Amino acid sequence: RFSGIDFEIIIIDDGSPDGTQEVAQQLEKIYGSDKILLRPRAKKLGLGTAYIHGMKYATGNFIVIMDADLSHHPKFIPEFIRKQKEGNFDIVSGTRYKGNGGVYGWDLKRKLISRGANFLTQVLLRPGASDLTGSFRLYRKEVLQKLMEKCVSKGYVFQMEMIVRARQLGFTIGEVPISFVDRVYGESKLGGNEIVSFLKGLLTLFATT
């Protein structure tokens, strides 16, 4: 609020039962509906469509996408903005695997799965970015719109495809080391089905890019 940057916070909630909408409504009353825009949807419709839904209401030139459970800490946003200005990047991606980035709150199995997925992706796709499965990113608005038109993946592969397509289209990508802290309440949705769909999506991208 004191940064001199003009901003708005758009909250997309897909009918979650955890009280997200109620908290967002309270924030809207405190900070005003020009700063906090609650744009709920009746049911879970997927991450990609949530991006499209949010973009319809974004009035700025840049969009920062992050999880609303504070796994992604807002303190990194000024670093994303600094990095973007420094290199005039089209995308600035948060990375857990570079510099002083890291993950907190995951057990060994989850860390191994994440590291393994990232390693496989690096070997097969050579994307030129160190963290492909994270979703804490800053996009130039028109770049995000173009990528959304190109991407077809769902689930965890979606984030990966965004970076791969960005490289294909010649967009520039900068990285900022971040600390990812696993949610304190609720459980991760990563299971056997997600791992299988990730591997299928990875092979599809390998075959088509």
How many helices? The count is 7
List how many beta strands DSSP finds.
Answer: 8
Which percent band covers the strand fraction? 5-15%
Backbone shape: globular
The residue-averaged pLDDT reads: 86
User: How does CATH name the architecture of the largest domain?
Assistant: Alpha-Beta Complex
The SSE string, one letter per element, is EHEHEHEEHEHHEEH
Number of domains: 2
Any idea of the CATH topology of the largest domain? Spore Coat Polysaccharide Biosynthesis Protein SpsA, Chain A
Q: Class of the largest domain, according to the CATH hierarchy? A: Alpha Beta
Helical content class: 40-55%
User: How would you characterize the largest beta sheet?
Assistant: 4 strands, mixed
How do the strands line up in the largest sheet? 3-6-4-7
C-alpha end-to-end distance? 41 Å
Secondary structure layout plus pairing:
Layout (H helix, E strand, L loop, with lengths): L8 E3 L8 H12 L4 E3 L8 H9 L6 E4 L11 H11 L3 E5 L6 E3 L3 H18 L11 E4 H10 L6 H12 L4 E5 L1 E3 L10 H17 L1
Parallel strand pairs: 1-2, 4-7, 5-8
Antiparallel strand pairs: 3-6, 4-6
Helix pairs in contact: 4-7, 6-7
What this model shows, in words?
With 209 residues, the protein is an alpha/beta fold. It has helices at 20-31, 47-55, 77-87, 108-125, 141-150, 157-168, 192-208; strands at 9-11, 36-38, 62-65, 91-95, 102-104, 137-140, 173-177, 179-181. The chain folds into 2 domains: 1-60, no CATH class; 62-208, Spore Coat Polysaccharide Biosynthesis Protein SpsA, Chain A, CATH 3.90.550. The chain has 7 helices and 8 strands; from the N terminus they run βαβαβαββαβααββα. α4 runs parallel beside α7 (192-208).
